[in-house]
Amino acid sequence: MSPPLEIIRHAVQAYPDSLAEQEGRVADIIAGRASPCIILTEHPPLYTIGTSGSESDILSRIVDGESISVFESGRGGEVTYHGPGQLVCYVLADLRSDPDLHRHVQRLEEMVIRTLADFGIEACRSKRGIGVWVGGNKIAAVGVRCRKWITFHGIALNIHPNLRHFSGIVACGMTDSPVTSMHAEGVHASRSEVETRVLEHAKALFSAPID
Prior knowledge:
Blueprint: E1 6-9, H1 15-30, E2 37-41, E3 46-49, E4 62-63, E5 66-67, E6 69-72, E7 79-82, E8 86-92, H2 101-118, E9 124-126, E10 129-134, E11 137-147, E12 150-158, H3 191-205
Parallel strand pairs: 1-2, 3-6
Antiparallel strand pairs: 2-8, 3-7, 4-5, 8-12, 9-10, 10-11, 11-12
Protein backbone atom coordinates (compact mmCIF):
# COMPACT_ATOMS: atom_id res chain seq x y z
CA MET A 1 0.00 0.00 0.00
CA SER A 2 1.32 3.45 -0.92
CA PRO A 3 2.00 6.02 1.82
CA PRO A 4 -0.68 8.72 2.23
CA LEU A 5 -0.17 11.91 0.25
CA GLU A 6 0.49 15.25 1.92
CA ILE A 7 -1.59 18.07 0.43
CA ILE A 8 0.16 21.26 -0.78
CA ARG A 9 -1.87 24.13 -2.28
CA HIS A 10 -0.74 27.16 -4.24
CA ALA A 11 -3.20 29.77 -5.50
CA VAL A 12 -0.97 30.53 -8.50
CA GLN A 13 2.59 29.37 -9.08
CA ALA A 14 5.12 30.32 -11.74
CA TYR A 15 6.04 27.24 -13.75
CA PRO A 16 9.82 27.36 -13.06
CA ASP A 17 9.06 27.58 -9.33
CA SER A 18 6.78 24.56 -9.65
CA LEU A 19 9.47 22.52 -11.38
CA ALA A 20 12.00 23.48 -8.71
CA GLU A 21 9.59 22.52 -5.93
CA GLN A 22 8.90 19.14 -7.49
CA GLU A 23 12.55 18.39 -8.16
CA GLY A 24 13.47 19.25 -4.58
CA ARG A 25 10.63 17.24 -3.13
CA VAL A 26 11.47 14.18 -5.22
CA ALA A 27 15.06 14.31 -4.01
CA ASP A 28 13.84 14.55 -0.42
CA ILE A 29 11.44 11.61 -0.84
CA ILE A 30 14.22 9.47 -2.30
CA ALA A 31 16.46 10.43 0.63
CA GLY A 32 13.73 9.73 3.19
CA ARG A 33 13.45 13.38 4.25
CA ALA A 34 9.90 13.98 2.96
CA SER A 35 6.67 12.16 2.27
CA PRO A 36 4.77 11.78 -1.01
CA CYS A 37 2.45 14.67 -1.80
CA ILE A 38 -0.09 16.11 -4.19
CA ILE A 39 0.47 19.73 -5.23
CA LEU A 40 -2.60 21.64 -6.40
CA THR A 41 -1.98 24.85 -8.32
CA GLU A 42 -2.63 27.06 -11.34
CA HIS A 43 -0.04 28.59 -13.66
CA PRO A 44 0.09 31.83 -15.62
CA PRO A 45 -0.48 31.14 -19.36
CA LEU A 46 2.27 28.97 -20.85
CA TYR A 47 2.98 26.13 -23.22
CA THR A 48 5.07 23.20 -22.02
CA ILE A 49 6.98 20.81 -24.26
CA GLY A 50 7.27 17.19 -23.11
CA THR A 51 9.94 14.69 -24.06
CA SER A 52 7.92 13.56 -27.11
CA GLY A 53 7.13 17.09 -28.29
CA SER A 54 9.06 19.68 -30.27
CA GLU A 55 9.18 23.42 -30.99
CA SER A 56 7.41 22.73 -34.29
CA ASP A 57 4.26 22.02 -32.25
CA ILE A 58 4.23 25.66 -31.10
CA LEU A 59 2.17 27.43 -33.77
CA SER A 60 2.08 30.87 -32.16
CA ARG A 61 3.37 32.41 -28.95
CA ILE A 62 0.79 35.19 -29.12
CA VAL A 63 -2.91 34.31 -28.87
CA ASP A 64 -5.73 36.83 -28.35
CA GLY A 65 -3.04 39.50 -28.08
CA GLU A 66 -1.49 37.73 -25.10
CA SER A 67 2.13 36.54 -25.09
CA ILE A 68 2.44 32.95 -23.89
CA SER A 69 5.71 31.61 -22.50
CA VAL A 70 7.19 28.27 -23.58
CA PHE A 71 9.06 25.85 -21.30
CA GLU A 72 10.79 22.51 -21.72
CA SER A 73 9.09 20.48 -19.00
CA GLY A 74 11.00 17.18 -18.83
CA ARG A 75 7.73 15.27 -18.42
CA GLY A 76 6.45 12.62 -20.77
CA GLY A 77 4.10 13.59 -23.58
CA GLU A 78 4.04 16.29 -26.22
CA VAL A 79 2.97 19.93 -26.03
CA THR A 80 0.18 21.23 -23.84
CA TYR A 81 -1.19 24.46 -22.38
CA HIS A 82 -1.47 25.60 -18.77
CA GLY A 83 -3.26 28.71 -17.62
CA PRO A 84 -5.75 30.33 -15.26
CA GLY A 85 -8.93 28.32 -14.83
CA GLN A 86 -7.09 25.02 -15.06
CA LEU A 87 -6.48 22.90 -11.95
CA VAL A 88 -3.05 21.29 -12.12
CA CYS A 89 -2.52 18.26 -9.87
CA TYR A 90 1.10 17.24 -9.46
CA VAL A 91 1.20 13.85 -7.78
CA LEU A 92 4.54 12.92 -6.23
CA ALA A 93 3.92 9.28 -5.42
CA ASP A 94 6.27 6.59 -4.11
CA LEU A 95 5.99 3.57 -6.40
CA ARG A 96 8.94 1.66 -4.96
CA SER A 97 6.61 -0.95 -3.45
CA ASP A 98 4.36 -0.95 -6.54
CA PRO A 99 6.61 -0.18 -9.54
CA ASP A 100 3.95 0.19 -12.23
CA LEU A 101 3.95 3.56 -13.99
CA HIS A 102 1.07 2.57 -16.29
CA ARG A 103 -1.11 1.91 -13.25
CA HIS A 104 -0.08 5.29 -11.80
CA VAL A 105 -1.28 7.02 -14.98
CA GLN A 106 -4.54 5.09 -14.76
CA ARG A 107 -5.01 6.35 -11.21
CA LEU A 108 -4.51 9.94 -12.34
CA GLU A 109 -7.09 9.49 -15.09
CA GLU A 110 -9.50 7.71 -12.76
CA MET A 111 -9.18 10.49 -10.16
CA VAL A 112 -10.42 13.00 -12.73
CA ILE A 113 -13.05 10.69 -14.26
CA ARG A 114 -14.60 10.19 -10.82
CA THR A 115 -14.37 13.90 -10.04
CA LEU A 116 -16.19 14.82 -13.25
CA ALA A 117 -18.86 12.20 -12.53
CA ASP A 118 -19.55 14.01 -9.24
CA PHE A 119 -20.48 17.05 -11.33
CA GLY A 120 -22.62 15.09 -13.78
CA ILE A 121 -20.03 14.95 -16.58
CA GLU A 122 -19.53 11.54 -18.18
CA ALA A 123 -15.83 11.20 -18.96
CA CYS A 124 -13.68 8.35 -20.17
CA ARG A 125 -10.32 7.26 -21.58
CA SER A 126 -9.77 7.25 -25.33
CA LYS A 127 -7.72 5.35 -27.89
CA ARG A 128 -6.55 8.75 -29.15
CA GLY A 129 -4.19 9.06 -26.22
CA ILE A 130 -3.77 9.19 -22.47
CA GLY A 131 -5.79 11.71 -20.52
CA VAL A 132 -9.49 12.18 -19.86
CA TRP A 133 -12.05 12.78 -22.59
CA VAL A 134 -15.64 14.00 -22.84
CA GLY A 135 -17.60 13.37 -26.03
CA GLY A 136 -14.46 13.09 -28.14
CA ASN A 137 -12.81 16.17 -26.63
CA LYS A 138 -9.96 16.19 -24.15
CA ILE A 139 -10.72 17.76 -20.79
CA ALA A 140 -7.60 16.70 -18.88
CA ALA A 141 -4.03 16.09 -20.04
CA VAL A 142 -1.53 13.78 -18.36
CA GLY A 143 2.25 14.07 -18.35
CA VAL A 144 4.40 12.11 -15.92
CA ARG A 145 8.05 11.65 -15.08
CA CYS A 146 9.52 9.03 -12.76
CA ARG A 147 12.88 9.05 -10.94
CA LYS A 148 13.90 6.00 -8.93
CA TRP A 149 10.18 5.10 -8.83
CA ILE A 150 9.15 8.46 -7.39
CA THR A 151 6.69 10.12 -9.76
CA PHE A 152 6.20 13.80 -10.43
CA HIS A 153 4.26 16.05 -12.81
CA GLY A 154 0.66 14.79 -13.16
CA ILE A 155 -2.67 15.82 -14.63
CA ALA A 156 -4.29 19.15 -15.59
CA LEU A 157 -8.07 19.49 -15.54
CA ASN A 158 -9.75 22.24 -17.56
CA ILE A 159 -12.30 23.93 -15.32
CA HIS A 160 -12.71 27.19 -17.24
CA PRO A 161 -9.44 28.15 -18.99
CA ASN A 162 -9.33 30.27 -22.12
CA LEU A 163 -9.73 27.43 -24.62
CA ARG A 164 -8.63 29.72 -27.46
CA HIS A 165 -5.12 29.53 -26.03
CA PHE A 166 -4.95 25.91 -27.19
CA SER A 167 -5.05 27.19 -30.78
CA GLY A 168 -1.43 28.26 -30.44
CA ILE A 169 -0.19 24.67 -30.27
CA VAL A 170 -0.64 21.21 -31.69
CA ALA A 171 -2.12 20.03 -28.40
CA CYS A 172 -0.82 16.59 -27.42
CA GLY A 173 0.07 15.94 -31.06
CA MET A 174 -3.52 16.40 -32.29
CA THR A 175 -3.85 18.83 -35.18
CA ASP A 176 -7.61 19.20 -34.67
CA SER A 177 -7.00 20.35 -31.05
CA PRO A 178 -10.14 18.72 -29.61
CA VAL A 179 -10.26 20.31 -26.16
CA THR A 180 -13.07 21.14 -23.77
CA SER A 181 -13.62 22.28 -20.18
CA MET A 182 -16.09 21.81 -17.38
CA HIS A 183 -17.60 25.22 -18.15
CA ALA A 184 -17.86 24.35 -21.86
CA GLU A 185 -19.75 21.22 -20.81
CA GLY A 186 -22.22 23.37 -18.86
CA VAL A 187 -20.81 22.87 -15.35
CA HIS A 188 -19.85 26.13 -13.63
CA ALA A 189 -17.98 24.78 -10.61
CA SER A 190 -15.35 26.71 -8.68
CA ARG A 191 -11.78 25.55 -8.26
CA SER A 192 -12.45 25.01 -4.55
CA GLU A 193 -15.40 22.74 -5.28
CA VAL A 194 -13.38 20.73 -7.81
CA GLU A 195 -10.37 20.45 -5.50
CA THR A 196 -12.53 18.99 -2.74
CA ARG A 197 -13.70 16.17 -4.98
CA VAL A 198 -10.26 15.59 -6.52
CA LEU A 199 -8.74 15.12 -3.07
CA GLU A 200 -11.44 12.70 -1.97
CA HIS A 201 -10.74 10.49 -4.96
CA ALA A 202 -6.97 10.90 -4.66
CA LYS A 203 -7.11 9.56 -1.11
CA ALA A 204 -9.00 6.48 -2.28
CA LEU A 205 -7.00 5.80 -5.43
CA PHE A 206 -3.47 6.40 -4.22
CA SER A 207 -3.83 4.22 -1.13
CA ALA A 208 -4.85 1.13 -3.12
CA PRO A 209 -4.72 -0.12 -6.74
CA ILE A 210 -7.66 0.54 -9.05
CA ASP A 211 -10.09 -2.40 -9.08
